[in-house]
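For the sake of transparency, this paper describes our internal protein records without simplification. Because each token names a local backbone shape, the row as a whole describes the fold. One such record is reproduced below, unchanged from the form in which we store it.
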Amino acid sequence: QVQLVESGGGLVQAGGSLRLSCAASGRIFSINGMGWYRQAPGKQRELVATMSRDGITDYADSVKGRFTISRDNAKNTVYLQMNSLKPEDTAVYYCNRDPRTMALLGYYSWGQGTQVTVSS
């Protein structure tokens, strides 16, 4: 069973940067589109960024130009570089399959996520 472990979150001032990592227990990234999601208190989980198995990326409008998703298949890890952070980016961040892959294959069990808090 694949396990996802997110890390790299923390407390940062507005305008700062963080790099999140998502490590998987198995060889999954090379055949899966992957995505980063976030959930703020009292809100539904939302999609932030995706990278297809072919390396095509897509971003939510709210993070476009500030966040960058990348992956290292050899390390079974996907990253999210977050720059110019805003207080509204505060949330717990998770990784999982991207929506297209989820529709075909289902989703992995959600990890514990990593908390990102941006102070104003």
In short: DSSP finds one helix and ten strands in the chain. The longest strand covers residues 18-24. The radius of gyration is 13 Å. The chain has a mean pLDDT of 93.
